[in-house]
Amino acid sequence: MDSVWYLEAVAADGSRVVHPIKRLPFLIGRDPGNDLTEATMGLSRRHAELDVDISGRLRLTDHDSTNGTYVNRQRINGSVLLAEKDVIHFAHAEFRIGRRDDENATFVNRSTLSGDDERTVIVPAGRGLSENFLPREREFKALLRGQGLSGALQPIVEMRTRELFAHEWLGRGLHPDLPQSPIRLFQMAAHLDRESELSQAFRDYGIKAVAARMKGATLFVNTHPKETFDEAFLKALAALRDNPDAPRLVVEVHETAVMEIARMKELAARLKDIGVRFAYDDFGAGQARLNELGEVPAHFVKFDMGLIRGIDMASERKQKVVGDLVRLVTELGSVPLAEGVETEAEAEVCRLMGFKLVQGYLTGRPVPVDQPAPEADASSVASALSDATAPLIPKG
After folding, report:
1. Which tens digits make up the pLDDT trace of 172-215?
2. What is the pTM of this model?
3. Phi, psi at 299, each rounded to 5°
4. Under DSSP, is residue 216 helix (H, G, I), strand (E, B) or coil?
C-alpha cells in the first residue's frame, strides 16, 4: 500500500492545518508557482523541495535559501532524507512531516464535522479502490529476468587533465508496459519486497553492456540499501573475477547504509578481498556522515548535487562548508567527486575547492546504452570525450 505524505502546520489560532503532498517533486517557497506557497518572512522565492528517494523515503533539498532549511532544528546543506514526525523549518515557517498509509486518504475540514480545534485531518476515502495486488506483476517479474531492461552511461571526468576516468551506470526500464523511471520501478518492487533483485538486474545488465563495449573500463554502479550487506550481493560481485572482460567496479553505497559503521567495516573488508572499490553517495546531505567517513574511509566520495548546483552563486557560508568538507575528505585519503556540475562557473569553483573528479551535464549527459556504441577501446573513448569537453573544464 502506498503512503500519503503531508506537511502539518499550526495556524495562528492554534488549529492544525495539513498540506497534502499530492505530487513529487513538491516545491516550497514564496512564489505563487510553488506547490506550497508561504508568505512567511524570510522565505526565499523557491526555498526548498521534496522528492522521493530510491529507498522510498522523502528527500528534502534546500535551494541555498538565504535563511536556511532546518530538520529537527539542525540546518541542512544540500539534501537530507526525512523520517515521519521530523520537524522542518523553512526559515521561520514550522512544519511536521507526517504519513498516512492509505493512498485513498482525503483531507477534509474537520470543523465542518465536529467543530473542534483541529481544522484539517486525514480520513479514509471509504470508497477508494483497494490495492492488494500489483498491476502488471507478470511484466515486472519478466523485467527482473532481464526482459525490458536498459540504461545509460554518464562520464566521470578528471578535473585537472580533462580525461575520462570512469562511467556511472544508470539503470532504466524499456518494457512497453512498465514505467521507464527507475524510481517508479523501485516503487513497484517495494510492493513485492524485491528491491534487491531489481537493483541486481540493473547492475547485471550494465556490467554486460560495458564489458561488450569497453573492455576494462571503470564503472560506478548503484546499490539499493536493502542489498548492501547481503551475502548474495557479495557473491555476485565475487563472480565477476572469473570474467576477464568485466569492468573495474566502484560500488556506490547509499546514504542509509553508511550509518551502520560495524557492518560497513565488514563490507569494506569483503570488497577489498573481492577487488572492488566503493564510494559514498550523496555525501554532504544531512549530517555529511563525517563519523562514518573517519571510521570507514571510502575510495571515492560523491558530493550531493544539492551542494554543487549553483555553488558559484552560493553564499559565502555554503562555499566555506563545501570547501572544508572537500579538504577533510582529501585528508582522510578519499577522492572527492563533484556531482551535478552543469556550468563552467560551477566547475571552476569546484576545481579551486580541490575536487579531483567531476560528473554532470557539463562533462556529458547520460548516453542510452542502446545507442551506437563508442569504440571498444576505453582509451579511445577517453580521447574522444577529452576533445569534446576540452573547452568546458578549466585547466588546472
Report:
1. 999 998 999 998 899 899 888 899 999 999 999 999 988 888 88
2. 0.71
3. -65, -35
4. coil
